[in-house]
Every structure is written in structure tokens, then in C-alpha cells.
Design brief:
single chain, Aldolase_TIM, TIM Barrel, 33% helix, 1-(5-phosphoribosyl)-5-[(5-phosphoribosylamino)methylideneamino]imidazole-4-carboxamide isomerase activity, alpha/beta, histidine biosynthesis, amino-acid biosynthesis, RibuloseP-bd_barrel
């Protein structure tokens, strides 16, 4: 079970997610870093554990009001061994190609923002592209044909339950299991609601190969020893 820490960036600082209500996100206060600057928070996470990947959501880019490319580039250059999964609200392949100029960046296309069938085809075929199937409550955010056509999913798929992000409600095990059953041998990553090791074990039994995690890392419910045990399995 792979743990991928999450950094949400807005207006140049890392913010703490609350149940997908982006207007309520405030600058993060964490024992892992002395400030909410993205590079500081990334450094704090890497001091906790030698993670293989880091998920970065550029909330300004997702919401169409600027971007935090400079901050993300600083993390990419500061940790060249770390794969960055960048969600910048991509809608077009040309935008993805700009990000892929950074050697250690993979691009996330969210179902909430993905564009035409041509974009979907590119995501399907590109090894550095990740699809996020985005849900808010029972609502799927995106074209239904994408949800019900697993044959066009890429090798890595995120099941993003936005209403559970930062809410401490636990992961949506039933949804993860349902999508994992359709995914075949693709790598399924759960996102939203992970509180502790018990949640990770249940997600693994539900078919997830990994999980995006933020709050549980910052409040210590997933600690250094937990992460070490997971990496040794």
C-alpha cells in the first residue's frame, strides 16, 4: 500500500482541505514545517518519510485564476528523485505537455475538468498521465461515458471522493471496491477520508494499491513507524 502525501496550494501557500469546500481552505499549520510555504511543507513531509511520490493540487489553476507553477517547479528541482503528481485543472493536451517538460512531473487529468475525446485518448495512452475520477457525494463530476468505460482509463486511476477530503469521515470503501472491480490490472489510488492504518488496510482489501493522504500525516495519526512498516511490506 503506497501512501502519497498531498499538498494543496492556493495563493502561494499550502492550505488545509476541508470536505472539498475550497472556499473554507485556510493556510496549513503543521508540526512538520515552520511555515505554509510549499517548499517548506514538502521538505517537512520528506523528513517524515522518504516518499516516492507527492500529489500537488494547484487550486488557483483548477479554479482558473492564475497558477502556482513557480512553487511547484521549486519542489521538482529541490527533490529530483520525487515523482510529482500535478493536478492543475488540465483541460487540454498542450497544457499537459508544458508540465511534462519537468522530468519528474506526471500530470493528473480530473474528470471534473477533462475536455474532448481527444484529450481522453491522450490520457489513455500516455504513461505519465493519471486519471482522477472525481465524486462529490453520490454525484460523479464528469462525463458519464468516462465513468462507465474502463477500457479508456490509463494505467493509474484515482478515486477522488471530494466530500471526504479532510473531513475525518473515513474512506468510501464501497465506491473504491466498485471501481477497482472494473479497473482490471490498473493501479487504483484512493483519495479522501484516510484517518489511520486501519483505513489503509481496509482500502487495500477493497482493491486500492495506494492512497492520497494529508491530514493524517500532519496530525500524527499516520506516523514515521507506520510509514516505515508500509514501505517494507
Amino acid at each position: 500500500m503506497q501512501v502519497i502525501p498531498v499538498i494543496d496550494i492556493r495563493n502561494g501557500v499550502v492550505v488545509r482541505a476541508v470536505a472539498g469546500r475550497r472556499k473554507d481552505y485556510a493556510p496549513i499549520v503543521t508540526p512538520l514545517a515552520t511555515s505554509s510555504a510549499p517548499l517548506d511543507v514538502a521538505s517537512g513531509l520528506m523528513s517524515l518519510h522518504c516518499f516516492n511520490a507527492l500529489y500537488i493540487a494547484d487550486l488557483d489553476a483548477i479554479e482558473g485564476r492564475g497558477d502556482n507553477r513557480a512553487s511547484i517547479r521549486a519542489i521538482a528541482e529541490g527533490f529530483p528523485q520525487l515523482r510529482l503528481w500535478v493536478d492543475a485543472g488540465l483541460r487540454r493536451v498542450a497544457e499537459a505537455r508544458d508540465w511534462l517538460e519537468m522530468d519528474n512531473v506526471d500530470v493528473v487529468f480530473g474528470s471534473e475538468t477533462i475536455g474532448s475525446p481527444e484529450e481522453i485518448a491522450w490520457v489513455t495512452e500516455n504513461a505519465r498521465a493519471i486519471l482522477s475520477l472525481d465524486f462529490k457525494g453520490r454525484l460523479f463530476l464528469g462525463p458519464e461515458t468516462l465513468l462507465f468505460s474502463p477500457e479508456i482509463w490509463p494505467r493509474r486511476v484515482i478515486v477522488m471522493t471530494l466530500h471526504r477530503v479532510g473531513a475525518g469521515a473515513g474512506p468510501d470503501l464501497a465506491r473504491v471496491a466498485h471501481i477497482a472491480a472494473d479497473a482490471g490490472d490498473r493501479t487504483m489510488i484512493a483519495a479522501g477520508g484516510v484517518r489511520d492504518m486501519a483505513d489503509l488496510r481496509m482500502l487495500e482489501r477493497s482493491g486500492a494499491a495506494g492512497a492520497l493522504v494529508a491530514t493524517a500525516l500532519h496530525d500524527g495519526r499516520l506516523g514515521r513507524d507506520d510509514l516505515l512498516r508500509l514501505s517494507q511490506k
